[in-house]
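Give me structure tokens for this 327-residue protein.
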Amino acid sequence: MNLGIVLLIVSAPDIGSTIQGDALLSRGGWEKQEIVEGGDTWINGNGRVHLWWFPNKVLDEDNLDQRYTTLTGEKVDEVIFLSRHYAASGQPSLTLHVIGVPGESPLGERAEFGGIKGSVVPPNTRFASWYRRMYEAGVKHNLTPEFDLTIETTHHGPCLSVPTMFVEIGSSESHWGRKDAAEAWADVIYDGLGLNGGSELGNWETLSDDEKLNSKIMLGIGGGHYAPRHTDVIRKTDCWAGHQIASYSLDMIKPDVENWDGTSDPYPKGQWSHAIKECLKSTKKAFPKGNIIAHLDRKSFKGWQRQSIKRLCQELNLPIGRTDDFK
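Here you go.
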């Protein structure tokens, strides 16, 4: 069992974040605590759940988990950011995702929206179960069909050491302040953290060793930013989920060699293999003893790309499954 805390972080300049924070506080059970880095804090759930009203934007604020521990003495086991989501389409949405910047180069440089190029943060183990609960909450609060209820692939900062995810209201200013969307997320958070008196959703550490060995964790590879095929697996099964890697993070340059064979010749250049390796390593860190299985969005790849990815997965002892394999 976890001995540390779950840290919920609200970003004060972000209305999509503060509307969720307000919805949580209005449900009661919160006790005001000390000010940390200029932001108010509260505790709930016998002191195990902390809410930090951070005074600034968060994408470039690295090590917030360690900073909170240093200033409060509380060991942080996981972080959940409450956030807005922006999309040029303006499509209303509830969405969630884990974080990092896989596949970008030069490796080690600061990324445009926070994080370090090529690095990823351990995925929060609640990701898949909270998506399923979010889908139920979206329907309950009559957000569908107006709102898309989806996941996103791994992207943006900040850098942290513990399992982390973002839960978001999208996708434009006209939606960020929607109280019905915030109440839907408040349902998910209260149920997901057991603040309503029930069991938590998606806490890996509550499983026995045998349960961990028999649990299936999806590592999604390929597809667009909203990963509809990976989302479908999460919705239709009771799998867990680690990183989801979009095709745009899998840069592959086919060798300019006559009769090149993707099953045996030198691998294509590009950051694709590094992205898969880093996301696998990070997912293993979040799910010790878990059975990690890759799910390929096959239609998003050309044949030679699939050959290379399958070959790499075989070398990494990473099995590839279809939807039924995650049930």
